[in-house]
Design a protein that fits this description.
single chain, alpha+beta, 2 strands, elongated
């Protein structure tokens, strides 16, 4: 499935407890989550909740 040129784009999802891998084809290779609607949304919601709790 992966060619030698794609291996440098392989990333592990930064979502807590996820563990999925994905190919990062973003322009600056900064993608963090396997899916924004699942892991990314939860991470952003948790950060927002934490910021609101500190105020």
């Amino acid at each position: 499935m992966l060619t030698a040129s794609d291996c440098d784009r392989l990333r592990e999802c930064a979502g807590v407890g996820c563990g999925w891998f994905f190919l990062d084809f973003s322009r600056n290779r900064s993608r963090r989550w396997c899916d924004m609607e699942d892991c990314g949304n939860r991470a952003k919601a948790n950060r927002h909740y934490d910021r609101k709790q500190k105020k």
